[in-house]
Amino acid sequence: MTQSHILSAFDRDLESIQALVMRMGGLVEAAILDAAEALETRDEEMAQRVRAGDKAIDALEEQINAECARVIAIRAPAASDLRTILTVMKIAANLERCGDYAKNLAKRSMVLSQMAALPGSTGSIRRMAKQVTLLLKDALDAYIARDARMAEDVRQRDQDVDQMYNALFRELLTHMMEDPRNITPAMHLHFIAKNIERVGDHATGIAEQVIYLVTGQLPGEARPKIDSTTAGGQGA
Amino acid sequence: MNDMRLTEKVVTETAKITARGVQVHYGTNHALKDVDVDILDKTVTAFIGPSGCGKSTFLRCLNRMNDTVASARVTGRIEMDGQDIYDPRVDPVQLRAKVGMVFQKPNPFPKSIYDNVAYGPKIHGLARGKAELDEIVETSLKKAALWNEVKDRLAAPGTGLSGGQQQRLCIARAVATSPEVLLMDEPCSALDPIATAQVEELIDELRAQFSVVIVTHSMQQAARVSQRTAFFHLGHLVEYGETGHIFTNPTDPRTEAYITGRIG
């Protein structure tokens, strides 16, 4: 709904909450990309910055929740306004979780930088990180544009991330089978890959919220899932 | 329409009042345009919409209050329990005993509290003797949640009560003739929040026995007390449906714009 409220303060409230969500999204995207870069370049300082930066993301989530509570109490939002508030609170929760994954990636990259590198894996992880941040960005753009089709596209594209994760899973498994000394770094890398894959799921969650916001209904049919790692009894 | 299951289940789906193609003209002013609606039994139905949208006009059709307006012309068909209420054989006074009404401003008669409630049953001959009338007055005041506050001063003038008490007295008066439908035209707009909450609680209790139709300018009130909501705009019934659905995901963009505070 693009028409403005008769009470313009209501519009200002919603806009300021929207701005907080976008700022939070920007921080999360940067954290994931920086953490993946720190992993590949073995940059401990950068990893440390990502770890410390998670506090700001958590604080934004709290601020968004407080603002939403205030709007509910004062404005009694209905219909699309109500759905906006509900959506914003869920998006903030999704982003907060993604921030935690970035922080965890940074933490593990500091451990990994003390070990011998596994050839190729960190590059794959960085490509995967780029892919999920793109999904996150598109999900948030779909939110701003109230674009259900774009959100649906994000849902569909999450399977690319799933495929990247599956490939990486097999790659890491191979490293571990080749040499047991690879197990520790491969396990860390696997957790990292799994966490990035989870970021993709959160991007999908945001996309689904956008569909709810626009249409009033969550998407019905199950989205495509390609996780061969749990299908063949070799599950993670 | 999809079922959002946001409100408690409507007790019954039986239509108490069925309106088809209802049009109202006040002289040359076409106030209500082709309204079709089923008012459910034992359900609170809220009519919302901006001033002049036709919601009060339609409410007044339901007990033929528009008969008293010389310029008003009502066409279409309104049935209560299958009986056409505009049939010439229907006595409007009898109809109004079955379809009670409570107005925006409390309007107790300049009589005692007792006589305010006893008036309807007396003129409709609903009580055989003093004892029976006493009983009707007591149960009506109890239904209106006023008995405990006035039982020791039934002979005191009704106009001496507080605004909220006066409105509950008017509800007791409307309830005293054992109506089947209770129409309320902005019953809380002259009341403070506490009295409003008491009247809303009362409305919720009354729906066990009657079909209640309430016109309100407070969308929060419509959301709080009703199970069904009808949105009127410029004489049209734009949308009618389950209250939870109307307030979370209305179908018509005009409903959306109104309930989110975007059009007047």
UniProtKB/TrEMBL annotation, chain A:
The keyword Transport applies. Residues 21-108, 125-210 form the PhoU domain. InterPro entries: PhoU, PhoU_dom. Pfam families: PhoU (PF01895). PANTHER family: PHOSPHATE-SPECIFIC TRANSPORT SYSTEM ACCESSORY PROTEIN PHOU. Homodimer. Belongs to the PhoU family. Plays a role in the regulation of phosphate uptake. This is Phosphate-specific transport system accessory protein PhoU.
TrEMBL record, chain B:
Pfam families: ABC_tran. GO terms for molecular function: ATP binding. The keyword ATP-binding applies. The keyword Nucleotide-binding applies. InterPro entries: AAA+_ATPase, ABC_transporter-like_ATP-bd, ABC_transporter-like_CS, P-loop_NTPase, PstB-like. Keywords: ATP-binding, Nucleotide-binding, Phosphate transport, Transport. Residues 17-259 form the ABC transporter domain. PANTHER family: ABC TRANSPORTER I FAMILY MEMBER 17 (PTHR43423:SF1). NCBIfam families: 3a0107s01c2. This is Phosphate ABC transporter ATP-binding protein PstB. It comes from Paragemmobacter amnigenus.
